[in-house]
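haha ok so turns out i had the wrong file open the whole time. this is the CORRECT one, sorry everyone. sequence first:
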Amino acid sequence: MSCKTPAARRPLRYALLLAALAALLGAAAVAGLALGSVRIPATHVLDIVTGAAGPGPYRTIVLDVRLPRVLLGAVVGAGLAVIGTVLQALVRNQLADPFLLGVSSGASVGAVGVIVLGIGAGAGLATTVTIPLAAFAGALGSLVLVYGLARGGGAMTTGRLVLAGVAVSYILSALTSLMMVTSARADHLKETLYWTLGGLGSARWDMLALPATVLAVGTALLITLARPLDLLLVGEEGATVLGLDTGRFRAAVFVLASLLTGVLVAFSGAIGFVGLMVPHAARMAVGAGHRRLLPVAALGGAVFLVLADLAARTVAAPQDIPVGVLTALTGGPFFLWMLRRRPEGGGTEGAPA
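then structure:
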């Protein structure tokens, strides 16, 4: 019998990894539907989801309360992981993340501004139109500002990128707080606090269509751009020699990343560090090639945020902790570890084979 070569075994291992992540996501989803302030047997959860169970109080809890929340968590987690993966390629730095680069804070400023000003509220368009558009504009503006500050006055290094991102994020967070405390309506404070902490507690069925569609289309488009993303890993000059217009390509993908971030933040608030941790783990599993990396990062991000939200609902039950608090508690130490082990100016690890 002939043994398969490592190259021949690689697609099989990749398929098995995707299958394992999909199975883990399914198990995490079932756990998210079963556990909480009211515990429901997993077998009963499956009966409810498949329609085998009749009407009852558990059916309402599973289908109307928990299932939209689990699905929104999977969509947001997948999206943040994909965005983090792409941003790390665009700036050639594994410390890049929508939250750390101020993109999420910019999106929050746009969303909170729409809430405070009441734009589109009278026509019922705030949730579906005006908030996502304002969040997109805020995300794009903050990303352009951070990138310009990091490149201005010299070569862009890890230190410059992180400092620019942190500075812009603090300024935008202060602007969000200013809008909250100066709002004419007291109820705005509670409503906008949701955006600053990040959470999935307000998930409803009518909130899923837009982020799920944008995620599916955006991820598919980014997978088709896997080769130019890979070319960026060899450096600016190398990518240009190989025929890539790096300036135009970066600008286009920055806009796409901002659109994805804006839509996700509009429905979940600013949830940090998912886009930092998950791409790093995915890259360790499958390498730096984006055609293989992006699907793994998406599934890994979905699993991570569904489990994180489950922990947020159960750790201090019946108190519901915003999931953004838990991701910050885990992501902060991870960021410090990454910052300590990477040399100044270090970029994304090697180009794909």
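Residues 348-353 have pLDDT under 50 and may be disordered.
again sry for the mixup
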